[in-house]
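ARCHIVE CARD
CATEGORY: sequence design from structure
SOURCE FIELD: tokenized fold
FIELD CONTENT:
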């Protein structure tokens, strides 16, 4: 059990649900809410993230990408504590469990009244499962050709945030695109850090991530853009939403992001990048919760009453 928990990489889970949290708070702000949608959207997203982690362990393990040159924590297949055959079975079971949660989510969101919407989201669910596996598994794994950033942005940014809101409201809201893109950028930022850390080993193994294709110097500038653009987009969202002064308390979450960028700018050692992955992931999670609380005036009201 210990090895399976390690293979699931729990530190990646908070980041994966950031879009779900923010989209749910936005729905609550507009008086759309259903706990069944919240619960099963969280379970589906967590299932996709664990599935992705298992698939990465399997794909990079059998391809030999996870070797002695890799800087990050050793994975289960690399250490030999879980066999490729066992991991393959886990991928199948996790895929089925995730699909089951997705079907229940679609049922509670539409309940047979919106057949077209149900079919669209079922297709998205299948596509998300396939994408989670195909990142590193198979001869044409898209993570080995530099397309990982695009898929992370789409599924953990746009689909996650806008999708869960649509399930509540049956609407698309233009303003929600701003924080959805921000969550997507920060999620890509975590992947970019991972690829920056593993640049040398990925290059030797033929894993042509966007960092391998463009180099570490470019990757740093790319990372600054992702994080700073995300911060700006959330700020613009707050302005357009006409937040009151006390609702801008979400900018507290900007502090760890700025500290992260400063540390990265001074860092020249790939080994020191690994701790930054967890920090950026948790900072994104913290920002989504704090922004959600400010959106529904929960923290501002408590703050004002305290004063």
């Amino acid at each position: 059990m210990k090895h399976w928990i390690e293979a699931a990489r729990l530190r990646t889970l908070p980041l994966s649900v950031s879009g779900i949290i923010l989209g749910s708070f936005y729905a609550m702000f507009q008086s759309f809410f259903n706990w069944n949608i919240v619960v099963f959207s969280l379970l589906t997203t967590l299932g996709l993230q664990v599935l992705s982690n298992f698939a990465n362990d399997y794909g990079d393990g059998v391809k030999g990408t996870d070797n002695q040159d890799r800087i990050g924590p050793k994975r289960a297949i690399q250490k030999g504590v879980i066999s490729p055959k066992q991991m393959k079975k886990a991928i199948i079971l996790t895929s089925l469990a995730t699909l089951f949660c997705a079907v229940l989510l679609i049922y509670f969101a539409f309940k047979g009244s919106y057949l077209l919407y149900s079919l669209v989201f079922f297709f998205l669910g299948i596509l998300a499962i396939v994408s989670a596996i195909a990142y590193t598994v198979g001869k044409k794994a898209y993570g080995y050709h530099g397309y990982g950033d695009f898929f992370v942005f789409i599924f953990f940014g746009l689909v996650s945030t806008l999708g869960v809101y649509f399930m509540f409201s049956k609407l698309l809201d233009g303003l929600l695109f701003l924080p959805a893109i921000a969550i997507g950028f920060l999620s890509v930022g975590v992947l970019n850090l991972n690829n920056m850390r593993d640049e040398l080993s990925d290059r030797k193994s033929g894993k042509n991530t966007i960092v391998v294709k463009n180099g570490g110097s470019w990757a740093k500038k790319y990372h600054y853009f992702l994080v700073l653009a995300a911060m700006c987009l959330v700020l613009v969202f707050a302005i357009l939403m006409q937040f009151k002064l006390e609702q801008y308390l979400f900018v507290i979450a900007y502090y760890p992001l700025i500290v992260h960028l400063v540390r990265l700018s001074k860092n020249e050692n790939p080994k020191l990048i690994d701790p930054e992955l967890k920090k950026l992931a948790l900072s994104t999670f913290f920002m989504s919760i704090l922004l959600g609380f400010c959106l529904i005036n929960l923290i501002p009201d408590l703050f004002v009453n305290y004063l």
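CARD ANNOTATION: The chain has a mean pLDDT of 89. The chain has one domain: 2-298.
SHELF: design records, drawer C
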